[in-house]
Amino acid sequence: MLFDDTYKTISAPVEAIFRDRGSKFLAYAYPINSDADIKPIVAKLKAEHPKANHHCWAIRLGIDRSVFRVNDDGEPSGTAGRPILNTLLSKDITNTLVVVVRYFGGTLLGVPGLINAYKTATEMALAEAKIIEKTINDIYTITFDYPQMNDVMRIIKEEQLQILEQRSELNCDIQFSVRKTQVEGVMSKLNKLTGAKIKYDYSG
């Protein structure tokens, strides 16, 4: 199978509200890049909704879509975080956090009712979102002598590489981003430049 170097995520935060028998489910979806983004977002929503009974969430992370976490925040196990995550899975989106804030309306919804409510609230929020496709890129830095600038820039232009950072002195550094499927071709061209050093930084 050809390596797939794209993934889908949402372009901006969105929200929606679902009501069932007096209970209110406020769903918030956010594009995120790492685990570290979760805590501040959940804390902010808890501060905005101090009287809510539950702040349940799920994330899917990683361009290989392999990382996921769920939190039922006091709801019966499997009735909140899991339905939220399943909705992310069925939409095939990653790098996304969905938090559903629940205000209890006095009537118990039962397990099927809860699963349906968290799933529906999540679906409604994601229906508001613009789903975008991003490419998986490797980030490299090339270091070279100033006279080689034209050669390096020509390759960057030919391959339509995105420059992230550039430092031009006697020794020049250019940090650039290259689609995973392009890496081999780009490297073989850059490696032909005498004295240029290429360092792999990270994937993103």
TrEMBL record:
The coiled-coil segments of this chain are none
Q: Using the record's annotation, list all stretches that form the Impact N-terminal domain.
A: 21-126
| UniProt xrefs under SUPFAM superfamilies | EF-G C-terminal domain-like, Ribosomal protein S5 domain 2-like
Q: Which GO terms describe its cellular component?
A: cytoplasm
Report the domain of life of the source organism: Bacteria
Q: Name one GO biological process term.
A: regulation of translational initiation
Family, per entry: Belongs to the IMPACT family.
Q: Which PANTHER family match?
A: IMPACT FAMILY MEMBER YIGZ, IMPACT-RELATED
Q: What is this protein called?
A: YigZ family protein
Q: Which organism is it from?
A: Mucilaginibacter conchicola
